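Need a sequence for this fold. Nothing fancy.
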């Protein structure tokens, strides 16, 4: 594949076998087009992230509560140490 705004037909051979030129391919989990774009892949990832945020909002509430509890415990420990 050649990344270019202008179509360019190339001929690459490997062991006397011509390789097929493709308009897009997947590399390390990302889809790359012949124009060097991956906007479709970016939009797919954004949609997947939205699903996670919508389906599991309780995770963020849990983290917030856990952080507040930890902060409260640390304050109590520091307060006890200052009284000693």
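Here you go.
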């Amino acid at each position: 594949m050649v990344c270019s705004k202008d179509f360019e037909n190339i001929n690459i051979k490997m062991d006397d076998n011509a390789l097929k030129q493709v308009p897009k391919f997947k590399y390390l989990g990302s889809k790359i087009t012949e124009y060097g774009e991956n906007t479709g892949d970016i939009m797919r990832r954004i949609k997947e992230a939205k699903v996670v945020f919508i389906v599991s909002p309780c995770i963020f509430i849990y983290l917030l509560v856990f952080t507040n509890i930890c902060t409260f415990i640390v304050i109590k420990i520091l307060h006890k140490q200052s009284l000693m």
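For context: Helices lie at 39-55, 57-83.
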